[in-house]
Amino acid sequence: MKTINVVSGPQNASAVILGCMRMPALSVEKAAEMIRAAAEEGVNFFDHATCYGDGDAETRFGDAFPLTGLKREDVYIQSKCGLHFDRKEFDWSKKDILESAEASLRRLKTDYLDVLLLHRPDLLFDPEEVAEAFDELEKSGKVKYFGVSNVNPGQLELLKKYVKQPLVFNQLQFSLDQTQLIDNGLYVNNLTTDRSTNRDNGLLDYCRLHDITVQAWSPLQFGMFKGCFVDHPDFPELNRVLGELGEQYGVPKTAVAIAWILRHPAKMQAIAGTMNPAHLKDICAASKVEMSHNEWWRLYLASGKFLP
Ligand SMILES: NC(=O)c1ccc[n+]([C@@H]2O[C@H](COP(=O)([O-])OP(=O)(O)OC[C@H]3O[C@@H](n4cnc5c(N)ncnc54)[C@H](OP(=O)(O)O)[C@@H]3O)[C@@H](O)[C@H]2O)c1
Protein backbone atom coordinates (compact mmCIF):
# COMPACT_ATOMS: atom_id res chain seq x y z
CA MET A 1 0.00 0.00 0.00
CA LYS A 2 1.28 3.45 -0.90
CA THR A 3 1.39 5.79 2.08
CA ILE A 4 1.24 9.52 2.50
CA ASN A 5 2.90 11.79 5.03
CA VAL A 6 0.48 14.65 5.49
CA VAL A 7 2.22 17.94 6.25
CA SER A 8 1.44 18.75 9.94
CA GLY A 9 -0.90 15.74 9.93
CA PRO A 10 -1.00 11.94 9.99
CA GLN A 11 2.16 10.13 8.89
CA ASN A 12 2.24 6.87 6.92
CA ALA A 13 -1.46 7.20 6.17
CA SER A 14 -2.61 4.68 3.57
CA ALA A 15 -3.32 6.18 0.15
CA VAL A 16 -6.56 4.17 0.06
CA ILE A 17 -9.03 4.98 2.82
CA LEU A 18 -11.97 2.74 3.66
CA GLY A 19 -15.08 4.94 3.58
CA CYS A 20 -17.62 3.57 6.03
CA MET A 21 -20.76 5.29 4.67
CA ARG A 22 -22.14 1.91 3.51
CA MET A 23 -21.18 -0.01 6.66
CA PRO A 24 -24.67 0.06 8.25
CA ALA A 25 -25.68 -2.59 5.68
CA LEU A 26 -23.29 -5.08 7.35
CA SER A 27 -23.71 -7.14 10.51
CA VAL A 28 -21.16 -6.52 13.27
CA GLU A 29 -19.32 -9.73 12.28
CA LYS A 30 -19.25 -8.77 8.57
CA ALA A 31 -18.09 -5.26 9.49
CA ALA A 32 -15.22 -6.76 11.51
CA GLU A 33 -14.35 -8.94 8.50
CA MET A 34 -14.36 -5.86 6.26
CA ILE A 35 -12.11 -3.85 8.61
CA ARG A 36 -9.72 -6.79 8.94
CA ALA A 37 -9.65 -7.30 5.17
CA ALA A 38 -8.83 -3.61 4.75
CA ALA A 39 -6.00 -3.84 7.29
CA GLU A 40 -4.60 -6.90 5.49
CA GLU A 41 -4.38 -4.77 2.34
CA GLY A 42 -2.49 -2.07 4.25
CA VAL A 43 -5.45 0.29 4.73
CA ASN A 44 -4.94 2.05 8.06
CA PHE A 45 -7.37 4.97 7.55
CA PHE A 46 -11.15 4.82 8.08
CA ASP A 47 -13.58 7.58 7.15
CA HIS A 48 -16.85 8.23 8.97
CA ALA A 49 -19.44 10.97 9.40
CA THR A 50 -22.10 11.52 12.01
CA CYS A 51 -24.73 11.39 9.27
CA TYR A 52 -23.76 8.00 7.76
CA GLY A 53 -26.76 5.84 8.56
CA ASP A 54 -27.73 8.49 11.12
CA GLY A 55 -24.81 7.35 13.28
CA ASP A 56 -25.21 3.64 12.51
CA ALA A 57 -21.95 3.50 10.50
CA GLU A 58 -19.99 4.71 13.53
CA THR A 59 -21.91 2.38 15.86
CA ARG A 60 -21.26 -0.63 13.63
CA PHE A 61 -17.55 0.21 13.38
CA GLY A 62 -17.32 0.78 17.15
CA ASP A 63 -18.92 -2.60 17.85
CA ALA A 64 -16.88 -4.39 15.19
CA PHE A 65 -13.42 -2.96 15.83
CA PRO A 66 -12.73 -4.93 19.07
CA LEU A 67 -13.43 -8.16 17.12
CA THR A 68 -10.69 -7.40 14.59
CA GLY A 69 -7.69 -7.85 16.87
CA LEU A 70 -6.33 -4.54 15.58
CA LYS A 71 -4.90 -1.97 17.96
CA ARG A 72 -6.53 1.44 18.16
CA GLU A 73 -3.17 3.18 17.86
CA ASP A 74 -2.39 1.37 14.60
CA VAL A 75 -5.27 2.95 12.69
CA TYR A 76 -6.47 6.45 11.86
CA ILE A 77 -10.15 7.05 12.55
CA GLN A 78 -11.63 10.14 10.93
CA SER A 79 -15.13 11.50 11.30
CA LYS A 80 -17.03 14.46 9.94
CA CYS A 81 -19.59 16.71 11.60
CA GLY A 82 -22.16 19.30 10.65
CA LEU A 83 -24.62 17.53 8.34
CA HIS A 84 -28.13 17.28 9.73
CA PHE A 85 -30.40 16.00 6.98
CA ASP A 86 -32.93 15.13 9.69
CA ARG A 87 -33.12 18.80 10.74
CA LYS A 88 -32.73 20.00 7.13
CA GLU A 89 -29.73 22.17 7.95
CA PHE A 90 -25.95 22.11 8.12
CA ASP A 91 -24.50 23.36 11.39
CA TRP A 92 -20.97 24.45 12.27
CA SER A 93 -21.87 26.15 15.56
CA LYS A 94 -19.53 25.52 18.50
CA LYS A 95 -22.28 23.63 20.34
CA ASP A 96 -22.98 21.37 17.39
CA ILE A 97 -19.33 20.62 16.63
CA LEU A 98 -18.68 19.69 20.27
CA GLU A 99 -21.83 17.59 20.61
CA SER A 100 -21.18 15.83 17.30
CA ALA A 101 -17.60 14.97 18.24
CA GLU A 102 -18.71 13.59 21.63
CA ALA A 103 -21.42 11.51 19.97
CA SER A 104 -18.93 10.15 17.40
CA LEU A 105 -16.53 9.15 20.18
CA ARG A 106 -19.34 7.35 22.05
CA ARG A 107 -20.52 5.48 18.96
CA LEU A 108 -17.01 4.61 17.80
CA LYS A 109 -16.11 3.53 21.36
CA THR A 110 -12.84 5.42 21.30
CA ASP A 111 -11.28 8.18 23.43
CA TYR A 112 -10.07 10.23 20.50
CA LEU A 113 -10.59 10.91 16.82
CA ASP A 114 -7.44 11.11 14.75
CA VAL A 115 -9.17 13.56 12.44
CA LEU A 116 -12.33 15.65 12.55
CA LEU A 117 -13.58 17.31 9.35
CA LEU A 118 -16.30 19.91 8.89
CA HIS A 119 -18.45 18.02 6.39
CA ARG A 120 -20.16 20.62 4.20
CA PRO A 121 -20.40 24.38 4.68
CA ASP A 122 -22.97 25.81 7.06
CA LEU A 123 -23.98 29.02 5.26
CA LEU A 124 -24.25 30.69 8.67
CA PHE A 125 -20.84 29.58 9.93
CA ASP A 126 -18.94 31.83 12.30
CA PRO A 127 -15.20 31.05 12.12
CA GLU A 128 -14.64 32.25 15.68
CA GLU A 129 -17.06 29.61 16.97
CA VAL A 130 -15.35 26.93 14.91
CA ALA A 131 -12.01 28.05 16.38
CA GLU A 132 -13.34 27.81 19.95
CA ALA A 133 -14.72 24.32 19.32
CA PHE A 134 -11.46 23.11 17.76
CA ASP A 135 -9.44 24.56 20.67
CA GLU A 136 -11.57 22.65 23.20
CA LEU A 137 -11.36 19.42 21.25
CA GLU A 138 -7.61 19.73 20.84
CA LYS A 139 -6.97 20.69 24.48
CA SER A 140 -9.01 17.78 25.80
CA GLY A 141 -7.11 15.38 23.52
CA LYS A 142 -10.34 14.30 21.86
CA VAL A 143 -9.21 15.27 18.33
CA LYS A 144 -5.65 15.21 16.98
CA TYR A 145 -6.02 16.78 13.52
CA PHE A 146 -8.62 18.96 11.82
CA GLY A 147 -9.83 19.59 8.30
CA VAL A 148 -12.78 20.22 6.05
CA SER A 149 -14.79 18.67 3.27
CA ASN A 150 -16.37 20.31 0.20
CA VAL A 151 -14.98 23.70 1.23
CA ASN A 152 -13.75 26.41 -1.16
CA PRO A 153 -10.67 28.66 -0.90
CA GLY A 154 -12.56 31.71 0.42
CA GLN A 155 -14.14 29.66 3.18
CA LEU A 156 -10.76 28.12 4.00
CA GLU A 157 -9.18 31.59 4.24
CA LEU A 158 -11.95 32.75 6.55
CA LEU A 159 -11.52 29.69 8.78
CA LYS A 160 -7.74 30.08 8.80
CA LYS A 161 -8.04 33.66 10.05
CA TYR A 162 -9.34 32.30 13.39
CA VAL A 163 -8.59 28.58 13.61
CA LYS A 164 -5.14 27.97 15.13
CA GLN A 165 -4.78 24.33 14.16
CA PRO A 166 -3.61 23.54 10.63
CA LEU A 167 -6.44 22.38 8.36
CA VAL A 168 -4.80 19.34 6.87
CA PHE A 169 -7.49 17.71 4.71
CA ASN A 170 -10.18 18.75 2.25
CA GLN A 171 -12.42 15.85 1.23
CA LEU A 172 -13.71 16.48 -2.30
CA GLN A 173 -15.58 14.68 -5.06
CA PHE A 174 -13.10 13.37 -7.63
CA SER A 175 -13.15 10.40 -9.99
CA LEU A 176 -12.40 9.70 -13.66
CA ASP A 177 -16.00 10.72 -14.35
CA GLN A 178 -16.27 13.60 -11.86
CA THR A 179 -13.19 15.62 -12.89
CA GLN A 180 -14.49 19.12 -12.19
CA LEU A 181 -11.66 19.58 -9.65
CA ILE A 182 -9.09 19.65 -12.48
CA ASP A 183 -10.99 20.48 -15.71
CA ASN A 184 -10.84 24.24 -15.41
CA GLY A 185 -7.05 24.00 -15.23
CA LEU A 186 -7.09 22.67 -18.80
CA TYR A 187 -9.90 24.62 -20.46
CA VAL A 188 -9.35 27.93 -18.58
CA ASN A 189 -11.48 30.49 -20.49
CA ASN A 190 -12.54 28.29 -23.43
CA LEU A 191 -16.03 29.31 -24.53
CA THR A 192 -16.81 26.01 -26.25
CA THR A 193 -17.12 23.90 -23.12
CA ASP A 194 -18.74 24.13 -19.68
CA ARG A 195 -15.65 22.46 -18.31
CA SER A 196 -13.89 25.84 -18.50
CA THR A 197 -16.21 27.15 -15.78
CA ASN A 198 -14.26 27.96 -12.66
CA ARG A 199 -16.62 26.50 -10.09
CA ASP A 200 -14.35 26.48 -7.05
CA ASN A 201 -11.93 29.39 -7.39
CA GLY A 202 -8.87 27.25 -8.03
CA LEU A 203 -9.49 24.90 -5.12
CA LEU A 204 -6.97 22.20 -6.03
CA ASP A 205 -4.15 24.72 -6.49
CA TYR A 206 -5.16 26.40 -3.23
CA CYS A 207 -4.99 23.06 -1.38
CA ARG A 208 -1.57 22.30 -2.85
CA LEU A 209 -0.26 25.76 -1.98
CA HIS A 210 -1.44 25.38 1.62
CA ASP A 211 -0.39 21.76 2.24
CA ILE A 212 -3.98 20.56 2.41
CA THR A 213 -4.25 16.91 1.37
CA VAL A 214 -7.21 16.15 -0.86
CA GLN A 215 -9.22 13.03 -0.05
CA ALA A 216 -11.14 11.99 -3.16
CA TRP A 217 -14.65 10.79 -2.30
CA SER A 218 -16.66 8.43 -4.53
CA PRO A 219 -13.56 7.67 -6.65
CA LEU A 220 -15.36 5.02 -8.75
CA GLN A 221 -18.77 6.62 -9.13
CA PHE A 222 -20.26 8.50 -12.05
CA GLY A 223 -22.60 11.41 -11.43
CA MET A 224 -23.78 11.83 -7.87
CA PHE A 225 -24.00 8.23 -6.58
CA LYS A 226 -25.25 6.95 -9.96
CA GLY A 227 -23.12 3.80 -9.81
CA CYS A 228 -19.67 2.46 -10.52
CA PHE A 229 -18.38 3.36 -14.02
CA VAL A 230 -16.14 0.28 -14.13
CA ASP A 231 -17.70 -2.28 -16.48
CA HIS A 232 -20.70 0.03 -16.96
CA PRO A 233 -22.02 -0.02 -20.56
CA ASP A 234 -22.25 3.80 -20.68
CA PHE A 235 -18.44 4.10 -20.53
CA PRO A 236 -17.09 1.87 -23.34
CA GLU A 237 -13.97 3.86 -24.22
CA LEU A 238 -12.99 4.44 -20.60
CA ASN A 239 -13.43 0.73 -19.83
CA ARG A 240 -11.43 -0.22 -22.92
CA VAL A 241 -8.43 1.82 -21.75
CA LEU A 242 -8.85 0.76 -18.10
CA GLY A 243 -8.85 -2.87 -19.32
CA GLU A 244 -5.81 -2.40 -21.53
CA LEU A 245 -3.76 -0.79 -18.73
CA GLY A 246 -5.09 -3.35 -16.24
CA GLU A 247 -3.74 -6.14 -18.42
CA GLN A 248 -0.44 -4.35 -18.84
CA TYR A 249 0.01 -3.92 -15.06
CA GLY A 250 -1.65 -7.22 -14.09
CA VAL A 251 -4.32 -5.51 -11.97
CA PRO A 252 -8.13 -5.12 -12.17
CA LYS A 253 -9.74 -2.08 -13.81
CA THR A 254 -10.77 -0.60 -10.46
CA ALA A 255 -7.10 -0.55 -9.45
CA VAL A 256 -6.23 1.43 -12.58
CA ALA A 257 -9.05 3.92 -11.88
CA ILE A 258 -7.75 4.48 -8.35
CA ALA A 259 -4.13 4.61 -9.54
CA TRP A 260 -5.21 7.45 -11.84
CA ILE A 261 -6.16 9.48 -8.75
CA LEU A 262 -3.02 8.53 -6.83
CA ARG A 263 -0.84 9.49 -9.86
CA HIS A 264 -1.69 13.16 -9.42
CA PRO A 265 1.27 15.04 -7.91
CA ALA A 266 -1.05 16.58 -5.30
CA LYS A 267 -0.60 13.22 -3.45
CA MET A 268 -4.29 12.65 -2.81
CA GLN A 269 -5.90 9.82 -0.88
CA ALA A 270 -8.82 7.90 -2.44
CA ILE A 271 -11.77 6.91 -0.24
CA ALA A 272 -13.14 3.57 -1.39
CA GLY A 273 -16.71 2.87 -0.32
CA THR A 274 -17.00 -0.81 -1.17
CA MET A 275 -18.17 -3.15 1.57
CA ASN A 276 -16.97 -6.18 -0.37
CA PRO A 277 -13.50 -7.43 0.73
CA ALA A 278 -12.72 -8.83 -2.75
CA HIS A 279 -13.55 -5.49 -4.39
CA LEU A 280 -11.35 -3.69 -1.87
CA LYS A 281 -8.46 -6.06 -2.57
CA ASP A 282 -8.85 -5.21 -6.30
CA ILE A 283 -8.87 -1.49 -5.51
CA CYS A 284 -5.77 -1.71 -3.32
CA ALA A 285 -3.82 -3.24 -6.20
CA ALA A 286 -3.62 0.42 -7.34
CA SER A 287 -0.45 0.56 -5.27
CA LYS A 288 1.27 -1.75 -7.77
CA VAL A 289 0.70 0.67 -10.65
CA GLU A 290 3.37 3.23 -11.52
CA MET A 291 1.25 5.09 -14.05
CA SER A 292 3.10 7.05 -16.71
CA HIS A 293 2.36 10.66 -17.62
CA ASN A 294 0.95 9.54 -20.98
CA GLU A 295 -1.23 6.80 -19.45
CA TRP A 296 -2.77 9.33 -17.07
CA TRP A 297 -3.69 11.56 -20.04
CA ARG A 298 -5.05 8.60 -22.03
CA LEU A 299 -7.46 7.81 -19.21
CA TYR A 300 -8.51 11.44 -18.80
CA LEU A 301 -9.31 11.67 -22.51
CA ALA A 302 -10.99 8.24 -22.54
CA SER A 303 -13.33 9.52 -19.84
CA GLY A 304 -14.83 11.91 -22.38
CA LYS A 305 -12.61 15.01 -22.32
CA PHE A 306 -10.70 16.49 -25.26
CA LEU A 307 -7.57 18.49 -25.86
CA PRO A 308 -8.58 22.12 -26.43
N1 LIG B 1 -17.35 14.23 2.01
C1 LIG B 1 -18.42 13.92 1.31
O1 LIG B 1 -19.27 14.79 1.03
C2 LIG B 1 -18.62 12.51 0.89
C3 LIG B 1 -19.67 12.20 0.00
C4 LIG B 1 -19.82 10.86 -0.38
C5 LIG B 1 -18.95 9.88 0.08
N2 LIG B 1 -17.96 10.21 0.96
C6 LIG B 1 -16.99 9.18 1.47
O2 LIG B 1 -16.48 8.47 0.35
C7 LIG B 1 -16.67 7.09 0.54
C8 LIG B 1 -16.81 6.40 -0.77
O3 LIG B 1 -18.02 6.79 -1.43
P1 LIG B 1 -18.73 5.81 -2.44
O4 LIG B 1 -19.12 4.58 -1.73
O5 LIG B 1 -19.76 6.58 -3.16
O6 LIG B 1 -17.47 5.54 -3.41
P2 LIG B 1 -16.97 4.51 -4.47
O7 LIG B 1 -15.93 3.68 -3.83
O8 LIG B 1 -16.61 5.35 -5.63
O9 LIG B 1 -18.23 3.65 -4.87
C9 LIG B 1 -18.65 2.53 -4.15
C10 LIG B 1 -19.52 1.72 -5.03
O10 LIG B 1 -18.71 1.14 -6.06
C11 LIG B 1 -19.01 -0.24 -6.12
N3 LIG B 1 -17.85 -1.01 -6.55
C12 LIG B 1 -16.59 -1.01 -6.07
N4 LIG B 1 -15.81 -1.90 -6.72
C13 LIG B 1 -16.60 -2.48 -7.63
C14 LIG B 1 -16.40 -3.47 -8.61
N5 LIG B 1 -15.21 -4.06 -8.77
N6 LIG B 1 -17.45 -3.83 -9.39
C15 LIG B 1 -18.65 -3.26 -9.22
N7 LIG B 1 -18.93 -2.30 -8.31
C16 LIG B 1 -17.90 -1.93 -7.52
C17 LIG B 1 -19.39 -0.60 -4.71
O11 LIG B 1 -20.18 -1.76 -4.69
P3 LIG B 1 -19.78 -2.98 -3.71
O12 LIG B 1 -19.99 -2.52 -2.33
O13 LIG B 1 -20.69 -4.06 -4.16
O14 LIG B 1 -18.35 -3.29 -4.00
C18 LIG B 1 -20.16 0.61 -4.23
O15 LIG B 1 -21.52 0.53 -4.58
C19 LIG B 1 -17.86 6.97 1.48
O16 LIG B 1 -17.88 5.74 2.18
C20 LIG B 1 -17.61 8.14 2.39
O17 LIG B 1 -16.68 7.76 3.38
C21 LIG B 1 -17.78 11.51 1.34
**What small molecules does this complex bind?**
NADP nicotinamide-adenine-dinucleotide phosphate
Share of helical residues: 25-40%
Query: Could you give a short account of the major beta sheet?
Result: 8 strands, parallel, barrel
> Strand tally, please?
12
CATH arch. level architecture: Alpha-Beta Barrel
Task: Output the CATH homologous superfamily.
Answer: NADP-dependent oxidoreductase domain
CATH class: Alpha Beta
As a percent range, the share of strand residues is 15-25%
Characterize the structure shown.
By secondary structure, the chain is of the alpha/beta class. It has one domain: NADP-dependent oxidoreductase domain (TIM Barrel, Alpha-Beta Barrel). Helix content is 38%, strand content 16%. The strands form 3 sheets. It has an 8-stranded parallel beta barrel, surrounded by 5 helices. The protein has a two-stranded antiparallel ribbon with strand order 1-2. The protein has a two-stranded antiparallel sheet with strand order 6-7. The mean pLDDT is 97. Bound molecules: NADP nicotinamide-adenine-dinucleotide phosphate. The site of NADP nicotinamide-adenine-dinucleotide phosphate has 25 residues, from strand 12 and helix 10.
What layout of secondary structure does this protein have?
Elements (H helix, E strand, L loop, with lengths): L2 E2 L8 E2 L1 E4 L8 H13 L4 E3 L8 H9 L11 E6 L1 E2 L4 E2 L3 H15 L4 E6 L8 H13 L3 E7 L3 H10 L4 E7 L6 H8 L15 H7 L3 E5 L18 H14 L3 H10 L6 E4 L4 H8 L8 H10 L6
Parallel strand pairs: 3-4, 3-12, 4-5, 5-8, 8-9, 9-10, 10-11, 11-12
Antiparallel strand pairs: 1-2, 6-7
Helix pairs in contact: 1-2, 2-3, 3-4, 4-5, 8-9, 8-11, 9-10
